[in-house]
Amino acid sequence: MNASRPKIIAIITGVISIAICIAYLLFITIFDYRTYLNDQLTNFT
Q1: Alpha carbon distances (Å) from 13 to 18, 28, 33
Q2: What does the pLDDT look like over 1-45, one tens digit per residue?
Q3: Plot region of 19 (φ>0 → left; ψ -120 to 50 → alpha; else → beta)
């Protein structure tokens, strides 16, 4: 059981890091799209 515990911790850490990366990319994409949309609305009026 001691040999499998580091593997479980490594897998959990990897999953958390991948989730953080995906969340970061989603936030950057949303904020970049909002900036583009605001620029288009500013140019429209």
Answers
A1: 9, 23, 30
A2: 566 999 999 999 999 999 999 999 999 998 887 777 777 777 765
A3: alpha
